[in-house]
Write a structure and sequence with these properties.
Blueprint (H helix, E strand, L loop, with lengths): L1 E3 L6 E3 L35 H25 L8 H32 L6 H12 L4 H20 L1 H20 L2 E3 L4 E6 L10 E3 L3 H19 L4 E7 L4 E4 L1 H14 L1 H14 L6 H15 L5 H10 L8 H14 L4 E3 L1 H6 L8 E3 L6 E8 L2 H20 L1 H4 L5 H29 L7 H10 L1
Parallel strand pairs: 7-8
Antiparallel strand pairs: 1-2, 3-7, 4-6, 5-9, 6-10, 8-9
Helix pairs in contact: 1-2, 3-4, 4-15, 6-13, 7-8, 7-10, 7-11, 8-9, 8-11, 9-10, 13-15, 15-16
Length: 451
Amino acid sequence: MIFVYLCNPPIEEVLEHHGIKGQKWGVRRFQNEDGSLTSAGYKRYNVDVDAAKKRVADSKEAYKQESKRYNQATKGGLVYDEAATKRLIKASEKMQWNKSKLSDEKIKAKLNKETGPVSSHRQKLIENYLKKGMSQEEAEIAAYKRTRTEKIIAVTAALTVAAATAYVAKNAYDKRVDKLIPEGTLLQNISVDSNKGVQDAFYASMTNMDNHKYRGIYGQTLKSQTGKSVYETKIGLQGGGLKLASEKSGVNVLSELVRNDKSYAQDLETHLKNSVGRYQNAAQNAAISRGLESLKKGKVDANVYNALNLSLTDHNLSTSDKVSKGLYNALKSKGYDAISDFNDKKISGYKSSKPIIVFNGAAKTYVQNRREVLDNEMTKSYIKGMRDINVKSLTPYVAMGAASLGLIAAGRSQSRKASAAQRNQIVAEYKKEHPGTQLSNDEILENYYSS
């Protein structure tokens, strides 16, 4: 210490150095020259898992309260309220955001415990994330998540091959083997007809997730297009159940029909010609074109059958009733009651697992109950259905049915990726509107979900 005599009595002035023991001037203890953290630097993250858990709990409660307000605004779902619907979806997104932040806190705790050097691969990931505008902390967490996902995929590589083989085999089996939908199965049909019966051909779903998709996504589409109420009809099976024709059987029946009925053959070709370009989905238009091309070559193959299958929903063409009834009657004569809905299973975007078209159900089905679907139910089912579609769009593992625990883990990782893609879009749009912003990605998202 130094005594400086400036007055009487003397004033003691203390010079203190607030450094870190062992640190030398000009030497960064926690950062490399490129700004990345050293192994010691990983221990400088503040972690508060309990606070993150509380945010998750609070957001769950907020979602529950928003659901109540939604019901009040829509009078229990009897009237449509766009603002209330958006608030409910926003509350759901915020809940998912807080869950992701809880995951980040747990990752920071793990990073704090690391003592060894960071792998060169992870360091490159960190540098790439920094270039994309992430903060140091965000980049470290993102790199950790990325390497964790890569490890999961690497560990399950052998299982993936096995699952892919099983998936291909199952896909081939489904295309070639007829099935029986047993008595006691409960089907669901969504429409705007409060008196819909089962005497005519109808579309149906039978799995829990498919039911959500049609109740939510298709239900909202119907309501917005017609302005009418949406009804859910539950249809029971009796009399031994329904015989479902495989794709191979459908092709064989259609081929025989075209070969023996020249009038039907002409109607089919006209129908496919008129169907060209009628769909907004490029995959649907491509399927129609493939079917027409095969038919022009004199072949009635899977391309023709699937083109007709997907066009059965289009009732605005003059040939629609002729070609649909002709196919259904031919299938009935062979003992079939239903076919798979190729459109929704493969190319429409619904990615349904077991959608069917029932055309011979009058004696084998009965209406168990029919009710109006409320708007809050449609919204909840819409959210669940869209999440499933996003996951199946991003990963083949989930589409294969996640044949192993490793694939389930990979599927969950891709589900998180779907949410991350949405958040990346929010950040990109904000930065486009606010060039030069100093906010980090997490700060932008925090503001977005808090607004």
